[in-house]
Every structure is written in structure tokens, then in C-alpha cells.
Amino acid sequence: MARLFHVPLSPFCRKVRLSLAEKKIEVELVEERYWEQDPDFMRRNPAGKVPVLRLDGIMMAESAAICEYIEETRPEPSLLPADPVQRLEVRRLVNWFDDKFHSDVTSKLLYERVNKKIMKQGYPDSANVKAGAKAIKYHLDYMAWLLDHRRWLAGDVMTLADFAAAAHLSALDYISDVDWNRSDAVRDWYAKIKSRPAFRSILADQMPGFPPPAHYSDLDF
Fold first, then answer.
1. CA separation for the pair 100, 107 (Å, rounded)
2. GO molecular function terms here (predicted)?
3. What is the pLDDT of residue 43?
4. Dist CA 160 CA 215 (whole Å)
5. What is the mean pLDDT of residues 180-186?
6. How high is the pLDDT of residue 217?
7. Residues with Cβ < 8 Å from 215, sequence gap 6 or more?
8. 48 in the Ramachandran plot: left (φ > 0), alpha (ψ -120 to 50) or beta?
9. Smallest Cα–Cα separation from 105: which of 61, 160, 171?
10. pLDDT band for position 220 (50/70/90)?
11. CA 17 to centroid of chain Cα atoms
12. DSSP classification of residue 198
């Protein structure tokens, strides 16, 4: 069985979990306190980051590389289109969420409010929290614009781009940092992807000291 070293609210880990679940790959989840830099974990990934996945006898790191490997070795159901132009758009949006959205929003809301407490790094920086709360509005509006022109974020079918976005937003939703009333299109998109079987294990996550909001696991929120 595959083994994933992860942190429950890490969007990068969630993206990998969604890819594995969508392709029905059984995986053992191992929570890893990567910030403690345990020597065994550092041998698995000298970068000292999660996710780290053991699959096919290979220890692999970096969520983008992991998801590409999963796609190449388990092509069905496909999460990357066959057309090169469409594939380019999927990769662009995955990078948008894992780079820009992460920098603008996730690092300023989730990391300030949750990660700092878990890692015992002090209190949230109010300026960062305020900046993240402002930035998420821009990103939700951009998603709404995309969904006004497409059925899914990157086109007419669900792709890894949708999983990348949902991974970040689901983690933020756990701490009630997403205004789902800002866009009906984004809310409907999230309800649709949240109802997929691949999402079940994510909705069951519990972080000690951080109870999820009442609507978190509600598929008809």
C-alpha cells in the first residue's frame, strides 16, 4: 500500500490525497511534524517538507512532481487533458493556486492562524491576516470569472486545477476563512467537487485545538 507523510490541513498534501483518491489508490496516511526535522523524515526528503509519498517502491517529494507521476503511471481517470493547450492551462492554474494563491492567501491566513500555533511560533501577525482576507476576495472573483466561461476551472472537464484550488479552499474553509456568499458560481463549483467520493477522507480530518465549522462536512452547505 502507498504511504503518504502529510499534515491534514496542508493544501499541497490535500492535492496529492485528492489525486490518489480519485484514482482509487489506497494509501496509508502518516501525520508528520515536519517542522521538528526528525532525522528519519529528513532522509525521506532533505527539503524537510510534506507531502512525501512512497509509491511503487519509490520515495517521492514535491506535490507537483508527485501528481505528475501519479497521472503518468495511473492515467485513468485522467486529471490532465490530452490536448497540449488545455494541459498547459491546467498546469498554469495549478501553479496559480500553489504559488500566487498560496503566497497571497494561504500563507497569510492558514499559516498565521493554525501553523504558528501548532509550531509554537507565536501569535498571528494581524497585518498578514488582514492582507490575506483582502486578497482572497480577488482570487474568488477571478475564479468566478473563469467559471462564467467554463464548466470547471480549466475547461469543460474536472482536472488537477480543480483539485489544486479545492485543496487550498478546503483548508481555509476548515477555519471559516472563505466567504462562499461572494460568488454563486464558486460556491456551486465547490459544492460539486466537495461531493465527490475523493473528498470524503479530507472532510473527516480533525485538527486538535481547531474544531471545524458546522458546515465543513456538509455536502449541501
1. 10
2. glutathione transferase activity
3. 94
4. 25
5. 98
6. 84
7. 221
8. left
9. 171
10. confident
11. 9
12. G
Element (H, E) at 92: helix 84-95
pLDDT tens by residue, 127-136: 999 999 999 9
CA end-to-end span of the chain, whole Å? 34
Which burial class, exposed, middle or buried, applies to 181 when counting CB atoms under 10 A from its CB (0-12, 13-18, 19+)? exposed
Please report, for the chain, how many H helices and E strands are present, in that order. 10, 4
Q: What is the pLDDT of residue 104?
A: 98
The reported pTM is 0.96
Amino acid type, 117: K
For cell 471545524, name the residue.
Answer: 212
Whether residue 110 contacts residue 172, with contact meaning beta carbons closer than 8 Å, is answered with yes
Would you state the cell numbers that stand for residue 144, as one nine-digit string? 468566478
Distance (Å, rounded) from C-alpha 138 to C-alpha 62?
27
Q: Do residues 165 and 143 make contact, with C-beta atoms less than 8 angstroms apart?
A: yes
Extract the C-alpha cell encoding 1: 500500500
Residues found in the chain: 221
